[in-house]
Task: structure prediction
Amino acid sequence: SAPKNYGVDNENYRYDVIFLKDTITVDEAMKDITLREGIDEVFVGNNILFFRRLFINLTKSKLGKIVASPVYKHITIRNWKTSTKLLEMMK
Result:
């Protein structure tokens, strides 16, 4: 499940969820994911990484560089709104 208050401030924050495939662990994924201190916030879940960034800092975030990293083939990324819609469709 998501961290408390995750996804509630959609006016100020961008929320993205990284779902890990069975081929990689959270620890292995975090080795390839670069965070910018004070910009990128990550919360670790069960085979899921929850990212949060202020909209005003999106261009400073390093999350976009993930597509060029080796970990990219082991993950899928969705924004929070899409993730919650998919969950509702599965119920």
In short: Strands lie at 13-20, 41-44, 48-54, 75-79. The chain has a mean pLDDT of 94. The chain has two helices and four strands.
